Amino acid sequence: MARTTATGRMTTNRRFNSMHSQKSLFRLPASEHYLNCAYFAPMSRSVEQAGQAALERLRNPASIGADMFFEPVDEVRKLFARIIGADDHRQVAILPSVSYGMATVANNIYGSEGQEIVLLEDQFPSDVYIWRRVAQEKRLKLKTVKRPTSTTKLGPAWTQEIVESISPRTAVVCVPNVHWADGLRFDLSPIADAARASGAMLVIDGSQSVGALPIDVGELKPDALICAGYKWLMGPYGMSLGYFGPRLLEGQPLEENWITRRNSENFADLVNYRDEYQPGAIRFDVGERSNFLHIPMMLAALEQTALWGPASTQSYCSALSRPAVDEIVDAGYLMADAESRCGHIWGVRMPKGLSGDRVRHELDARAVRVSFRSDAIRVSPNVYNDPDDLMALVDALRVARDVN
Ligand SMILES: Cc1ncc(COP(=O)(O)O)c(C=O)c1O
User: Fold this and answer.
1) Domain end among 273, 308, 343
2) pLDDT digits over 319-352, tens only?
3) Do 384 and 358 fall into the same domain?
4) How many angstroms is it from 79 CA to the middle of ligand 1?
5) Which of 97, 102, 119, 124 for a ligand 1 pocket mutation test, highest count of atoms within 8 Å of Cβ?
6) What's the pLDDT tens digit per position in 47-92?
7) What is the CATH number of the domain that holds 256?
8) Is the pTM above the cut of 0.70?
C-alpha cells in the first residue's frame, strides 16, 4: 500500500520511463522491502524455473549430451558479451568468483620491481588481497588512492585523483566503476585513457554495476572486466564472468582442465593431449565450467538482464530513487551529490548523533532490507522495486531521526 511522506513528494506511480516495476517476475515476500541487490539478487521466477528444470534433468545423466558441455556455455558468453559491448564472445571466460578472475589476471601481468599497482581506499577485498600478494612476490608497490575529503563532486574528484596517480611507473590499475560500499561513481573513461597512455593494465571489477549500468568494453578497452554473477547479473551464487582483452589472451590459466584444450568437443580423442587451447579467453574457464545447474540459471538470468537492458534498468532505478533521495537529504542524512551517484546503489550517511542501532531498529520494524557497509547505509534497488519500497525506507529513516 502506498503512503505519502512528510513532504508528500513521493508518488505511487509504478511506471518510470519505459519500464514498469518487474516485481511480478520475482517471488519476493509481499511483506518485505528488498533494497539489497548489491548484497544478493533475488532469484527471478525464470531463474528458479531454469534451476528446477536443471535439477530434474540431472536425475538421469543420460539426458546430459556432449553438446550440453559447450552450447549453453557459449550462449552465456554471448549474452554477457552483448551486455558489456564485446564483439567476440570468446573473450568471455566462465569463472567461479571474482577472486578467481583477479588471480587469473594477476598471474599474467608484466611489471618489474618498483612498478606500481593502483587501487582505491576501501576497495572490495577480492580486488585487494591478490594484488598485495603480487606486490610482495614481484616487488611491486601498492598505491592506494584515498577518498578525497571534498564534500561536493566526490566521484569526479576521486576519478581525477586516480587519473593523476597513473604514470609510466604504473603496472596495473584495478578499479570498479562504482564503489561497493556506498555506490560512489567513477568515470572510467579518463582512467582508461590514462592507463592506456602509460601502458598500464586496466582491470575493472564490474560486480556492483554490470547489468544495471551501461559499460562498453569496446570503448574502454580494459585488459579485464570481472563481474560476480549473483548481483546485478541476477544469476546463481558461485558463478562469475570475465572479459579478457587482447593482451591477456595468450596468458596462462590458473589450472589446466581438459575442456579448455582445442578439440575437446571430441570426447573420444581426449587423451590425444594437445598444447593448444580453445580460442580467446576460454583457456581461463574454471574446471567443470559447464556446471549443469549454474549455467542454465545464469542463462535465464542473462536473458532477462539483456532484455531489460542496463540503460533502461539504470533509468528505472534512477527515477525510482530520485524522490526518496530528496526526502532522505531533507531529513538531514548525508548523501553524495547527483553527479557522483547512480540510481541502483547509493550510500546514506547518518546525521551526527544518530546511532546505527536506532536506524537498524526502524528498518527492521518495516522489513526494509539494506546493508550497512563501512559508515554508510547501502541502498540498492532494482527493477523489482516500486515506490512502496522506497517509501518504507524513507519512513524508517525519518522516524529514526525524529525519535532520536
Ligand atoms: C565489488 C565486489 N567485487 C566482488 C565481490 C565478490 O567477490 P568474490 O566473488 O571473490 O566473492 C563483491 C561482493 O560483494 C563485490 O561487492
Assistant:
1) 308
2) 999 999 999 999 999 999 999 999 999 999 999 9
3) yes
4) 21
5) 124
6) 999 999 999 999 999 999 999 999 999 999 999 999 999 999 999 9
7) 3.40.640.10
8) yes
- Secondary structure of residue 36 in the 3-state scheme: strand
Q: Where are the beta strands (DSSP E) in 206-279?
A: 224-228, 240-244
Q: For residue range 185-226, list pLDDT tens digits in order.
A: 999 999 999 999 999 999 999 999 999 999 999 999 999 999
Which residue's CA lies nearest to atom 7 of ligand 1?
A: 98
Question: What are the pocket residues of ligand 1 if the criterion is a CB atom closer than 6 Å to any ligand atom?
Answer: 97-99, 124, 126, 176, 180, 205, 207-208, 228, 240
Q: Is 136 in the same domain as 191?
A: yes
Q: Are 38 and 112 in the same domain? A: no
pLDDT band at 110 (very low <50, low <70, confident <90, very high): confident
The partner residues of 372 in beta bridges, in order of sequence, read: 377
Q: Does residue 108 have a pLDDT over 70?
A: yes
Helices 129-138 and 98-106 pack at an angle, to 10 degrees, of 20
- Report the chain's mean pLDDT, rounded to a whole number: 94
Q: Whose CA is nearest to atom 16 of ligand 1?
A: 180
Measured in Å, residue 183 CA sits from the centre of ligand 1 at 14
User: Residue 132 forms beta bridges with which residues?
Assistant: none
**Which residues, 6+ apart, have CB-to-CB distance to 181 below 8 Å?**
122, 347, 373, 374, 376, 378
Listed in sequence order, the DSSP H helices in 107-255 are 129-138, 154-165, 188-198, 217-220
Are 143 and 196 within one domain?
yes
Q: For residue 75, report the distance from its CA to the centre of ligand 1, in Å.
A: 24
Domain that holds residue 112: 65-308
DSSP 49-84: HHHHHHHHHHT-GGG--GGGGTHHHHHHHHHHHHHH
Mean pLDDT of 216-243: 98
For the stretch 270-295, pLDDT in tens is 999 999 999 999 999 999 999 999 99
Count of structural domains, the chain: 2
Q: What length is written for the chain?
A: 404
